[in-house]
Specification:
With 921 residues, the chain is mostly beta strands. Helices cover 10% and strands 47% of the residues.
Length: 921
Amino acid sequence: MKGILVNVLFIMQLSFSFGQSNTVISGKIIDSKNQKPIESVVVAIQNTNLTQLTDANGKFYFDQVVTGKQLLFIKSEGYKDQLLQIDIIEGNTLDLGIIALEIDLTQEKQSALITISETDLDDDNSTSESTTSLLQSSRDAFLQAAAYNFGAARFSVRGIDNKYSNVMINGVSMNRVSDGRPQYGNWGGLNDASRNQEFTNGSAPSDYAFGGIAGTQEINTRASIYRPGTRISFLNTNTNYSFRAMATTSSGMNKKGWAYVVSGSRRWAQNGYFEGTDYSANSLFASVEKKFNDKNSLNFTAIYAQNKRGKNSPNTAEVSDLAGNKYNSYWGLQESKTRNSREKKSAEPLFMLTHYWKINSKTNLNTTVSYQIGQIGNSRIDYTKADNPDPTYYRKLPSYYSNLFLNGIYVGDSPENSAKADSTKVSFLKNHQLDWKNMYKVNGQNFANGSRFVLYQDRNDENIAIANSNLSTLLSENVLMTAGANYLYSKTKNFKNMLDLLGGNYYTDISTFGISENQQQSDLNNPFRTLGVGEHYGYNYNIVATKLEAFTQFKFVFKKIDFYLAQSFSRSGYQREGFYKNGYYPTNSYGKSEKMNFDNFGFKGGLTYKLSGRNYVDFNAIYMTKAPNVKDVFPNARVNNSVTDEITNETIKAIDLSYVFKTPRFKARFTGYFSEILNSTDISFYYADAVNSSGNGAFVSEVVTGMNKRNRGIETGLEYQITSTIKLIGVAAYGEYTITNNPNVSLTNDASSTVTNYGQAKLAGYKQAGMPQQAYSIGIEYRDPKFWWIGTNANYLASNYLDVSSLLRTDNFYTNVDNAGMTIDQSLADSYLEQEKFDSFFLLNVVGGKSWRMKEKTLGLFTTVNNVLDITYKTGGFEQSRNATYRQEYEDHQSSGPSVFAPKYFYGYGRTYMVNIYLNF
């Protein structure tokens, strides 16, 4: 609050008594090939509020423009952007004449990008979220390589998770309060409708929000800024889906002040790149604008994206060696049809109403209210009353017998166990998919007692209302102020939803892990409740979240230097309300929890020093705090109201320094960066052996608090136009992303209703996992004057690390009673705890396209072949935390073959292709 007051006082000191310039700027924009005018081209004078759309004749007109050197930015979908430097002289009329825009043949790269990124988003056990969708709107050479060339390897710019970005539609943030990340699937498949984007990198200033350290992305769906016309496309690929059909039409603003855009698509596959991964998605978009006068317009946007896709399993090296890198344990055949047990379904329609108010030539106020409702569901098999049906369950693999111990003596190499290992291998190769038929059989044999196997869905039903207002005003010729306020109310219903009884006639809602009859009940208010398909069970609670935030930003523009100052304040509130009286936590599960409030602030600033018209230095710095996400505040929300002990805000600090050089033929950017994230929290759930003083195992929730992370490195992007048709591109990224302290680890054991503090995990010096920390690319493009082009890029990615177990690195590893009678070999212990570094790899990609103009129509073809050499590589992975002691690790490494509880890995795509045909008219 103190920071906001400072800005208010600052504004009051500024003089508003500046004069108006009578300068006029005009021009006409045409298509470079057919010489016809282009309507609805966005023409803006940067660092001001002056923005115009060209009329039906391609003309634009500005008056009352401030004097001095200005930058005129021109943008239209399907064409290359233009940035022109103009010199404004008091009282003069500047007629720029005819400006010809060239077709951007590479815009179809967006289609290729989406097909390789959506499958990576929001999967279980993912430690690094893809940032490729965030970067698709950037024209920077480095950031384009990060999106298109490195995206398949889960490269993350500066190693920052996208929960530290801010993705907006019409100024409204799409980041969820549950985990802080945007739900990209909410507008998936709407490539044409979401192409009007503005992107800022790192903590650079945005005109729409304070932002974070991973950049901002603003998607503008105002109907009048879409270029009039219709576009139809059809795509074929062999990645996460096989086909996509899409159509979009936009009207432009008519004489009565109306404009509309309608878009729709369908994506589908019977089987994606990985085995058993079916895909079905339908997306619809509509935007309608009514212009009442030159100062007021109202725009309504509706987005509906329904998605259903089968997931693929992470696998140990043993499983991949036996069944291949495309193997997926989540599916099996049911009556000769593929059925995946783990499907993600989402459908969350979004409605927005935006008022655009041009108060005067220097001040704009845009206000948006939005409402989103819908559901996200992730299915899986509930087998608490039967044996694990997963074909990769550790007792069903050869390594179980080859690593077997009996009374502390290794017997895995005995003839008997060697024979069992061999027979288990034969059995796995013969039956390595889910056996749906057997699950139906077991349920049929227990028909009178209810199903032992069922298929259920973890459901999140969301209601999100947001109001956002953004004011921008030119305080003087050199000062632009932007201010914004945002209020969010979110209510999420979380419950277990019964999908299929798998041949049974009912299911009894109890947990067989409970020691007592009371502990077995998910709801003591309804003990031994029986249920059918479509009913809730297991857990049932709401999370209510509110967030109020505001920011101010001042940009100062001068001849030799530009600089900005910004600050923000936010208050977040979270509360859980349980509807079940859980048997493990009878006094702490039913009803409302305490309400948790978190106040946060941020300050950032930066400057651009113009050494000359072609080279300049750019600097950005930020210091901010960030509220923990809901999932980190309530560590075991499914069963109780408990709050993470000593939960606190994260502290975030970052700086970056860039040198930028631009000429018509050569462009370069060299950037060094440094960031720290302090006091972060991480929650995970698993079964662990020997996690208590008696050496017994249990299902636990692990809470890691107080973790500090440091990211530093350099990034470089180079472009050189050798000739008018040939361009070279070079990109390099070198980073060091590490954990810098020893965070605290605690485990909640539901069976005993206890929380055990295991103290510090020795993680200082370990690498952050889930993304390459080095990436290099060199590419060449040829663009023929006859509107075809081809390019290739060679990419080298390295320094990607396995996500390590925190529990394994606490003192429990050495001191647990399970180690009694053992002499610990420290060199062996160190080898067990050493973090795995993945092999570096090389990716070769080829892209190309061609377009044909036929009177008023454009027919185009775009194609890519990625990973031409079909290289196998890991994109991520994690240690299993089931082994918690030195003895268990020692016994798990006695055979010369695979370990029983070895790490599980995610693999990238092999050779893939994409072909897109489109028609514009």
